[in-house]
Design goal:
Strand content: 25-35%
CATH architecture of the largest domain: 4-Layer Sandwich
Radius of gyration: 21 Å
Largest sheet: 7 strands, mixed
CATH topology of the largest domain: Metallo-beta-lactamase, Chain A
Order of helices and strands: HHEEHEEHEHEHHHEEEEEHHEEE
Oligomer: single chain
Shape: globular
Strand order of the largest sheet: 1-2-3-4-5-6-7
Helix content: 25-40%
Structural class: alpha/beta
CATH class of the largest domain: Alpha Beta
Number of strands: 14
Distance between the termini: 39 Å
Length: 327
């Protein structure tokens, strides 16, 4: 079916003839300006329920990554074709960041904390969105970290050293702590990794004695169980959130953007420290989600970064949840 100019004009005329047409047109042509003079979206938070637990997804903006060199075991043309199939640009990927707030009877638990004030110019929206969702940092009781990459931990401490969540207990994967806090390993690390080791110490060194460490298969907060998903980093951890009959698989960085890595689970992002292990983990977790028809949450999926996994032969796809105004 071809879309003709006459059909477009007719459709526009019909829209303007509806009771809402005039108002919708007026709203669409009235720009929303940010303090800097640019345009801004509405606050980036989205709530849904898992049993009796209210989950709020908090968006922390995005960072653009050139496609060339991003996937270590695929040709650029293959990656560009996957982007084209997903109606995404062929030159760069906008990698989004989404953390979760778990609200259980007024007790707040965070899963990861975003970039803080150390991310790209297009990120760093986390605190504004967190407050817009009705939360305050002083209310947070527990912070659960999936792994130690900067976009997951930098929100704990501002670049001037200020602690962001003064009343929160911080708990981290024991295997992740053992790797990144090992001085000998840091000294032997290639130059390209030394900055990551130093950043981990910037964030955690002042609170080392207070940081709790958890093992896989343990409940790290009420209803939240740790799942070992290594490969992306040595101690990378996902989580199963359970409440009543509700379940949510929090996949963390098992995949980066689903259009690339859910569709092509054998591809390896440049950030995967052990590519072979990351692939095994990815297949295992995607298979689990598809078999169980479990709702999933991904850190780098398009906001609100939640949906379901469908299996299609040797590949998978993310089926987004339907947006709803009711929680």
């Amino acid at each position: 079916m071809s879309v003709t100019r006459r059909a477009v004009i007719a459709g526009s005329t019909l829209a303007l003839a509806t009771p809402f047409g005039e108002n919708v047109l007026a709203q669409a042509t009235t720009p929303s300006t940010a303090p800097s003079g640019g345009s801004r979206q509405a606050p980036g938070f989205y709530r849904y329920k898992v049993g009796d637990i209210e989950v709020t997804a908090i968006n922390d903006g995005f960072a653009k990554r050139p496609l060339e060199g991003f996937i270590k075991n695929a040709e650029l043309a293959q990656v560009q074709e996957a982007m084209k199939e997903a109606y995404l640009p062929a030159d760069a990927l906008a990698i989004t960041f989404t953390t979760l707030v778990l609200n259980r009877n007024g007790k707040l638990t965070l899963i990861d904390v975003g970039n803080g004030d150390l991310g790209a110019p297009t990120s760093g929206t986390w605190m504004a969105n967190f407050r817009a969702a009705g939360f305050d940092p002083s209310q947070v009781e527990t912070i659960v970290i999936s792994h130690f990459h900067g976009d997951h931990i930098n929100g704990l401490r501002l670049k001037d050293g200020t602690v962001v969540f003064p009343n929160a207990e911080v708990t981290v994967p024991a295997a992740e702590w053992a790797f990144w806090m090992d001085d000998a390993r840091m000294n032997q690390a290639p130059e390209s990794m030394k900055g990551a080791f130093q950043n981990v110490r910037r964030v955690f060194a002042p609170i080392t004695k207070d940081v709790k460490r958890f093992e896989a298969d343990k409940e790290v907060a009420p209803g939240l169980t740790a799942i070992a998903t290594p490969g992306h980093t040595p101690g990378h951890t996902s989580f199963l959130l359970s409440s009543g009959s509700g379940k949510l698989l929090v996949m963390s960085d098992v995949t980066n953007h689903p259009a690339l890595f859910v569709r092509n689970p054998d591809w390896s992002a440049i950030f995967d420290m052990d590519a072979d292990l990351a692939r095994q983990t990815r297949h295992r977790m995607l298979d689990l989600a598809a078999t169980e028809r479990a709702q999933v949450s991904f850190y780098h999926a398009p906001f609100p970064a939640t949906g379901y996994i469908a299996k299609e032969g040797s590949k998978f796809r993310l089926v987004p949840v339907q947006w709803t105004s009711a929680v």
